[in-house]
Amino acid sequence: MPPGGGFVTTPAGYRLWCRDVGPSDAPALLFLHGNPTHGFLWRGVVARLCSRFRCLVPDLPGFGRSPLAAGAALPAVLADAVTDLLDGRHTGPVILVGHDWGLATAAVVAGRRPDRVAGLVATNGWAWPLAGQPRFALFARLMGGPPGRGLIRRCDGFVALGLRLGMRRRGPSKRVMRACHAPFRDPADRAVQWRLARATTGATAFLQEAEAGLHRIADRPALVAWGDRDPAFRASERRRLEGLLPRHETVILAGAGHFTPEDAPEALARAIAGRWGRAAPDLS
Q1: Residue 117 pairs with which residues in a beta bridge?
Q2: First-to-last C-alpha distance (Å) of the chain
Q3: pTM of the model
Q4: What is the C-alpha separation between 196 and 218, in angstroms, rounded?
Q5: Residue 100: phi, psi to the nearest 5?
Q6: Can you list the domains of the chain with their CATH numbers?
């Protein structure tokens, strides 16, 4: 892989764009983004940690530069690709870092490969079925249904609105917005966004596997790093995660919204380094 990033073909044939930076013999962090972002989301966190940790940052299938095969089942393909990526990388056990759908994906991967998981960082996401919960049912019906599909197809509206509503400490800069829109210039590439939005309450089997995965790594150290001004994932979701992760430490990212890696990269990096005993004064 070229320095800083390149395409990786996993043993099962998934083609993923992945950054692999930091000392090869350092503890490894595997960063998983959510919807509608890509690995770019983690750059501020990775920049503060890559001198002390090996940082693996893939674009999940359908996001960033990683292609999504026609007819691929979402969200199953996300976990299948990450599991295969992990199987093909020469690392020891990794610390999984998941945000939004990346957290659910991390939990599924953890359940499949618990021997490869040294710990978990959970930030503003979930890993259990959401069917029947009115707040998420409304989101899935709107953003995963005809209104959201139309908005996404016409103007990449999920990215345009989501980033602005989901950042509370600072608004996204023009550069950030350009980078987040860039993978979705072709409206045909945006279908992954509404398909995953619809799956928020529809992917029950996948999310049951995610919850079971958390139980399988309940003995591992965990960090719950939580933006407390997230309009989607609130204190109730944080408390449920804490209950599923008995060895957790919680750090509240005060004032941060949903997109914590973008809204509070300094605090998130400091929390990760501190949890695994590698804090340093220059993280900010």
Answers
A1: 94
A2: 29
A3: 0.96
A4: 27
A5: 60, -130
A6: 6-132+204-275 (3.40.50.1820)
